[in-house]
Design brief:
This protein has 321 residues and is α/β, with parallel strands linked by helices. The chain is built from twelve helices and nine strands. The protein is 27% helix and 12% strand. The two termini are 36 Å apart. The structure holds SN-glycerol-3-phosphate and calcium ion.
């Protein structure tokens, strides 16, 4: 299959290195069955790297910060250590969010892939954010999944930089299976796997066809049918989004025969949350998901910030615990 470039700056497609930075808007008549804005459910609020406005990103404290605010979905980023352990970390280097430079001054550039799990376990991933979080560790995926089991939260798992970690999809799926995350209940309503790497998303779909998947980026409208073969979601940055684009995505059926969904990122203020909710997005990924939830609950008649009605709950609730 040959796919044309997507809009996400860090997105990747097989055999392609040139990225186009704007989606191609195509005019089309609205679907006859498209719900009116006032009839839509509010978008699912998703805690980006955990509720990372309130606690250090991609830590268990950030999961708890989301849980304390009643947020049921958390997003994280997964990479692989030198000795094959899966860890929750956004950057390919440990430098920004841990004290690795202090503990291992001779190991520049401090890539995740160059450290063992035991070494990473020594790091402090909290102090950079706030001294209150001193000693907060970098979680392994196993620890993270077990923690979510305790809080009964759901996971939007991002395979970060898959090109650095050949075969990581199989490793992640093995871990998910061992921890009970590939059973029917989890697969039906508690787990989505996404990536900027189309090959990686495709690999997940091929290796675990029941798992819901998302492609991060804003593919050209003409290419959406190809993505729909292996993805259930198209997840663009909110700055690349238009109502027409959302309509075009929704008009297609995804890998599991349901309308393709849109989870957009990273929306951290109420006005933008209302704007994208009015476009009809299905989910909003946010560092401050409570702000998004409160701004869009029972919404969303227009993009001016005027609420269209009473609270009707959110799709996170509808999607299970
Ligand atoms: O979930 C979307 C978002 O996390 C993608 O960007 O860089 O925060 O991983 P990034
Ligand atoms: Ca991410």
């Amino acid at each position: 299959m040959s796919l044309r470039p997507a809009a996400a700056v860090t997105g990747s497609l097989a055999g392609l290195c040139v990225l186009v930075l704007a989606a191609v808007p195509v005019q089309a008549a609205p679907r006859a069955d498209a719900p009116r804005a006032a009839d839509r459910e509010a978008p699912v609020p998703v805690a980006h790297r955990g509720a990372s406005a309130y606690a250090p990103e991609n830590t268990l404290a950030a999961v708890d910060a989301a849980h304390e605010r009643g947020i049921r979905w958390v997003e994280n980023d997964v990479q692989r250590t030198r000795d094959g352990e899966l860890v929750v970390m956004h950057d390919a280097t440990l430098a920004r969010t841990t004290n690795v430079e202090q503990l291992f001054p001779d190991r520049a550039p401090w890539n995740v892939a160059d450290f063992t799990a035991d070494e990473i376990a020594l790091l402090d991933a909290g102090s950079w954010f706030d001294p209150l979080y001193a000693g907060e560790p970098v979680p392994t995926l196993e620890e993270y999944l077990r923690h979510l089991h305790g809080t009964r939260q759901n996971l939007l798992l991002e395979i970060k930089r898959p090109e650095l970690y050949p075969g990581i999809e199989a490793d992640i799926l093995r871990e998910l299976r061992e921890e009970g995350w590939l059973d029917r209940r989890h697969v039906r309503s508690k787990l989505i796997i996404q990536s900027f790497g189309a090959d990686s998303v495709r690999a997940v779909h091929q290796q675990a066809p029941a798992v819901k998947t998302g492609f991060l980026g804003t593919p050209a409208v003409g290419d959406l049918p190809e993505y729909a073969r292996f993805a259930d979601q198209i997840n663009p940055t909110h700055t690349s989004l238009s109502e027409e684009y959302v309509r075009q995505v929704h008009a297609l059926k995804g890998a599991h025969g349901k309308p393709l969904e849109v989870f957009t990122w990273t929306v951290n203020d109420a006005a933008t949350a209302r704007r994208v909710a009015a476009m009809g997005v299905d989910g909003i990924i946010s560092n401050a998901p409570d702000v998004v939830r409160d701004a869009t609950r029972g919404d969303t008649g227009d993009s001016t910030g005027n609420s269209a009605g009473d609270s009707t709950g959110d799709r996170a609730r509808a999607a299970g615990d």
